[in-house]
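Notes from the 1:1 (GR / supervisor)

We went over the backlog. Supervisor wanted to see one worked example end to end before approving the batch request, so GR pasted a single chain during the call. The sequence is below; no edits were made to it. Supervisor asked that the structure be written out right there so they could see what the output format looks like.
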Amino acid sequence: MGVNALSKKLRPSGETPDSVANCPLLKGKRIGLDLSVLLHKALANIDGAGEYHVKPAIPNSVVQERCNRLCSYAKANNIKYVVCVDGKYHPMKAAENDARKADRDKAQSELDALFRTNDINNILTSDKKKLNEALKLMKRSVQVTPDVIATAVRVFKENDHEVHGAPFEADWQLVFWELSGFTGATITIDSDIWAMGSKVYVDLLDYNSAEGKCKVLERDDVKGNIMQGSSQWDDKHFVLYSALCGCDFIKRLFRLEQKKIDALMTQYTDPNNTVALDQLLTELSEGQHWPGGNKKPGDPATDFVDRVHKCIGLMTHAPVFDYREDKLQIVPMKPLPQDKEWSDVIGFDPIQIFSDTPLEDSYRVDILARFDAPLPPPIARQQHPNDSNRVVPHAAIVDFDHMPPCVTPQAVQRMWLYYHGNPHPKGASRMALSEQVVRGRLLGLQLDEDNIKDTDSATSNSYISIDGIKVLAPVEWSTNGDEAVRAVRDEKTPRINSAYIGSTFGEGKNGIRDRSWLRFVSGHMNVETLRVAICKVEVDGEEQMARIFEMKVTPSMKNVVYSVYLVFGMDGTFLNKLSR
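Structure output shown during the call:
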């Protein structure tokens, strides 16, 4: 959540004139990245929320897409991300976390009841209001699970970025990294990171833009935007202001006017002020209440002064991981006051809370400290219904009784239809696809073995740069068409041309056949450019012989031509890591 309204004060407009991929201030830097922000944003997307609810579980493609897009921004600007994963929950945020969990559980319960309704797909299809209610419940009931985290972690690690865990809040760890020089900026939307000391704060990142449009806020340039005189504040003033405005660690007093906060800050930061902070806080909270539910006042704010100090202590001395002395340990973000213990300053003892969790494993993210569980492996694919020794691709099996087709993401429906041999237009709407899924289920469509093989695990990641082919010996290509075709089909195949068409169908009206063949060889796949080679390659660090096929391809007859490479082991195994 961050500090109430602070982001808008720091950047008064919603413009995003900067970009991660091109900003000179970010070029070549190590940049901290708050993973939880990315994941929450992805799951708040209707497709991300939809894939979260799919059963059996599948990797969340919206999470993967956003992570890969961030990696593309980094590559363009020579950036190295240092991704931070949230650690354990802590007592100072217990009320906030409990409220969020209660809301999620309530939404999930309502969603389960709705989906159990008889004929729910037809009901939602015909009632737009109920459909929108279902979609809202799907978004409200999502949470960042270990599988979601693991999906993101794998993408960043595969792209050579660093991923580390925090002992507690990722926000605190990210600020500590900046303050200690480990990183030079932080990407997040939580403005409390700026309040705690971030020097370069990357806000309003647009994951849908080609270059990562954003707003880069340099501390010294924007600190005067908060209110008159704030350009002269030091770090402790910004933390106090954040506590008064309300943040993750303390609620704002019920209907407390901004002008009263500004007045207190003006008086407190006046060099001639003689009134102690505690007295100013007592006067501000006199007769005030904490916020209750339904926009009503809650309990009297009699503990306001103490809670403000705990919040300030937490935002100044929060527990973080420190590896600078070659020994991982939990330390305060800034040194604790002399003769003070953790509990005195922040309200809890982080060492005690972490006593049963290995520090090293948590920092490496081998263990997810928040869940006290290992980072899970990739989500397993489902067993083939007719062969217990085989598995099928993700989304080949979908439980539409658990979640009706009309709220299932389009990508999932398209994959299910494809794996069941049902042709469909690529750009079909969710509802049009839903009709085809319903029809297919009624017809009892079976899995299409050819389509399953085409997109099996061997081909699921086949779009990989040609740089990945490590050829260990000179390649001698054969451009002999007959030889290439025999390698593909393992049989002699005649050269197909006008003469062959005439000899097969008889001389005469073969114009349509000739034009069809010409379009095939000069359009998407120009088979006349097919060539093949047998050579030695490296796969996962090991040498082996392989057969490489190359063919010229064009997306349309008027577009550019490029090469496609397919690499197979001599036993026929498709080598997806080498193909492109």
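Supervisor's comment: The longest helix spans residues 94-115.
Batch request approved.
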